[in-house]
Amino acid sequence: MKSQYVLPITIVVAGALIAGAVFLAGIQKATPGDNGKTASVRAYTPGVDHIIGNPNAGVKIIEYMDLECPYCKTFHTTMLQVMDYYGKSGKVAWVVRPFPLVSIHSKAPQEHQAAECAADQGGDSAYYSFIDKVFAITPSENNLDLKQLPVIAQGMGLNVAQFNSCLSSGKFAQRVNDSYNEAIALGVQGTPYSVLMVGTDSVELPGNQPYDSMRAAIDAVLSNTGTATTTTQ
Are 149 and 109 in contact (CB under 8 A)? Predict the structure, then answer.
């Protein structure tokens, strides 16, 4: 990350109330290195990733999420607020990537596949709508009744037979698994885990960052890129 971004955002993160679901089993899959990292954060990839906001936004928030993580559920509300504030400017976008912590949340992989099946019918908007509805009803900590997944799909107006066929076939199991392995290679040890990306530069924002901290970090990046938001909400 370019030096002009590091100091202000480091201060923000250091002062934040950070919480998250911690995941340790499986981290050994990553070759030991700098915090276990064996890879760099992948840039937004159309056709693979799902995005809210302008795909050409100069700042992208990439979040690795577990749909059964209670901290992700809270942070999801924060990110909806963030995008309500910044999304209209076209300068900030949000990308969600699955990171189901299967050792503690065995239902999460299927839930993430279900979101992909929703997107298979309705695109990115359906993907995020499905996630919204999962977080709205799940008690978290692996307590969602998976029978609710097609109920959610039906409530969204999706073709339920097509949705069920997609889910039972495991059509997107590999995509979810690839995203999981990608997070492992990055050394991610808990959820939510977010990265602020400006081009190929990035700053990590781990844990359940409060709204004010997210605002401060984003504003610092926008200020340093000379694209300060004009949002007045």
Answer: no
What are the CA-CA distances from residue 98 to residues 51, 72, 95, 208 (Å)? 13, 11, 10, 16
The answer to whether the pTM exceeds 0.90 is: no
Q: What is the pLDDT of residues 31-44, one digit of tens each?
A: 334 455 777 899 99
Residue 138's pLDDT is 97
Give the span between the Cα atoms of 161 and 158, in whole angstroms: 9
User: How far does Cα 87 stand from its chain's mean position?
Assistant: 16
Cα distance between residue 190 and residue 121, in whole Å: 30
d(CA 149, CA 132): 12
The DSSP 8-state label assigned to residue 202 in this structure reads E
Residue indicated by tokens 């109920």 = 151
- CA nearest 206: which of 94, 84, 53, 71? 71
d(CA 215, CA 135): 22
* Residue range 129-158: mean pLDDT, rounded: 98
Q: How far apart are CA 141 and CA 129, in angstroms?
A: 21
Closest CA to 115 of 171, 58, 71: 171
Q: How far is CA 175 from the centre of its chain?
A: 14
Structure tokens, 217: 């970090």
Tokens representing 232 are 């007045």
**DSSP, res 32:** S
Domains parsed from the chain with CATH numbers:
3-224 (3.40.30.10)
